[in-house]
Design a protein that fits this description.
alpha/beta; Rossmann fold; 7-stranded mixed β-sheet; 9 helices
Length: about 250
């Protein structure tokens, strides 16, 4: 399975434990992330059109769990680099709930990926809302309300996926919100928005189930030294999110 994410730090978070999940399952996975911190769909679109070599290319080779990197990579170079089975796209978190920020950038990037990689499944990665006490200025876009941010980003992702003819959404945002409703804000680093070990595992589990079509319950990889009850909660919430998908009202 060859997977490319055109993303930022949130796809980096989602990739962190995914190679270990694949290894535990005996699955061959080439996993790559086109990385610019905080990169929006509009910036990806501009970089593609202008052939800018602004990316770090984060690579996990098959059966390897340590990342290697290349620098000064262009978006078109990565898209053309392998015969990809899956290509994921996502919006940057500050703009995740701003519907107009997706158009026309998502549709045109998706169409470009389909043209170059006609066999690849194009997926949209639903990112997550911020912690309730996140200090980021961009949180003001959502009235500094986690629930409002989640509602707005969910509606934006659904609408954008329909417009771009993308039929698969990886529901990390829904899984995160379900966990928060169960155990509270325990998924981020101190910055209030990047995933800690628990958050990275949860997003990775959503990727794993969506990409491989297998249940995370059957995967033996777990984060060392984490309470078994918390691990079970993460698995339940990831599996439920993928099984149910996301709907426009955010629930």
């Amino acid at each position: 399975m060859n997977v490319l994410s055109i993303g930022n730090s949130f796809s980096n978070n989602a990739h962190r434990f995914l190679p270990k999940m694949a290894q535990a399952d005996g699955a061959e996975l080439m996993l790559c992330n086109l990385y610019i911190g905080g990169c929006s769909l509009e910036t990806h679109w501009n970089n593609w059109r202008e052939e800018k070599t602004d990316y770090e290319y984060e690579i996990y080779l098959p059966f390897e769990t340590e990342m290697t990197k290349a620098t000064e990579v262009a978006l078109h170079e990565a898209v053309e680099d392998e015969e990809w089975d899956v290509i994921t796209l996502q919006q940057c978190s500050p703009l995740s709930g701003i519907r107009e920020s997706y158009s026309p950038y998502l549709s045109e990037l998706a169409e470009y990926c389909r043209m170059v990689q006609p066999r690849a499944k194009i997926m949209l990665h639903q990112t997550w809302a911020y912690d309730k006490n996140c200090p980021l200025t961009a949180f003001a876009n959502y009235g500094r309300s986690q629930q409002e941010m989640y509602r707005m980003l969910t509606e934006a992702y659904v609408d954008a996926a329909l417009e771009a003819d993308i039929g698969i959404i990886i529901p990390s945002g829904r899984a995160w919100q379900t966990v928060r409703n169960t155990i509270g804000d325990k998924l981020t680093e101190v910055d209030g928005y990047h995933g800690n070990d628990l958050g990275c595992y949860l997003a990775g589990a959503c990727f794993y189930e969506t990409i491989f079509g297998k249940s995370i319950y059957d995967n033996t990889f777990e984060i060392p030294d984490v309470d078994k009850g918390i691990m079970e909660t993460l698995k339940i919430c990831a599996h439920t999110a993928v099984e149910k998908g996301i709907i426009r009202n955010g629930y």
